[in-house]
Amino acid sequence: MKLFFWRRESRAKKTQATKKDKVFKALFSAQGFPIVLTLAILGVLLVLFRMKGVEQDYQYDTLIRKTNKANLENKELKAKRAQKTSVKNLRKFASKYNLKRPKQNQIIIIP
């Protein structure tokens, strides 16, 4: 009885070994190797393109942050300029430096 089971296991191992050999021979034969090589190259290229896309996403995100920061700084500077050139502030400067209001002929309007 043991001999019979031993034979079944050995046959199973032989068929597995022969299947592995057949697959190995098929993949690395003259017809199968170019296909395997092409698939491997496509896999590597897929990974590289995906990595490059992620890298560009990080760069894009960094540029968006810098742009938002510059826009915020620009708004703050415009608010400071508006505050400095307000009528109330200009009148303070005029009284501080003894300046007079301009006469009608001294005003020049630039279109």
- The total tally of domains equals 1
Radius of gyration: 41 Å
Mean of pLDDT? 86
- Structural class, by secondary structure, is mainly alpha
Helical residue percent? over 70%
Number of strands: 0
Please write the string of helix (H) and strand (E) elements: HHH
Shape: rod-shaped
Quaternary structure state of the chains depicted: single chain
Largest sheet: none
List the main descriptive attributes of the protein structure presented here.
mainly alpha; 111 residues
Q: How is this structure best described in words?
A:
The structure is a single chain. By secondary structure, the protein is mostly helical. The chain has one domain. Helix content is 80%, strand content 0%. The protein has 3 helices and no strands. The chain is rod-shaped. The mean pLDDT is 86.
Topology, element by element:
Layout: H1 2-27, H2 32-84, H3 87-96
A few lines on this structure:
The protein is mainly α and 111 residues long. The chain has helices at residues 2-27, 32-84, 87-96.
